[in-house]
């Protein structure tokens, strides 16, 4: 059976504001979450509001490449 054709895929969500502010070297890290999405219902990149412990607030987390 072909496993690469699964409907649900695992994705990584990364904090957008931590990535932008990492140039300042003030941030301690980048917040990342692991979740799943349905490939057929959501073909575009996923963006969710999640809590970032490094920013200490709710920020937008966008899907990144593996």
TrEMBL record:
Instruction: Name the source's superkingdom.
Output: Eukaryota
Q: Does this UniProt record's set of keywords contain Hydrolase? A: no
Q: Which GO terms describe its cellular component?
A: chloroplast; ribonucleoprotein complex; ribosome
Molecular function GO terms recorded: structural constituent of ribosome
Query: What are the GO BP annotations of this UniProt entry?
Result: translation
| HAMAP family noted in UniProt | Ribosomal_bL33
Task: Report the sequence similarity comment from the record.
Answer: Belongs to the bacterial ribosomal protein bL33 family.
- Family matches, as PANTHER family: 50S RIBOSOMAL PROTEIN L33, CHLOROPLASTIC (PTHR43168), LARGE RIBOSOMAL SUBUNIT PROTEIN BL33C (PTHR43168:SF2)
In Swiss-Prot or TrEMBL terms, this protein is called Large ribosomal subunit protein bL33c
Its lineage reads: Eukaryota, Viridiplantae, Streptophyta, Embryophyta, Tracheophyta
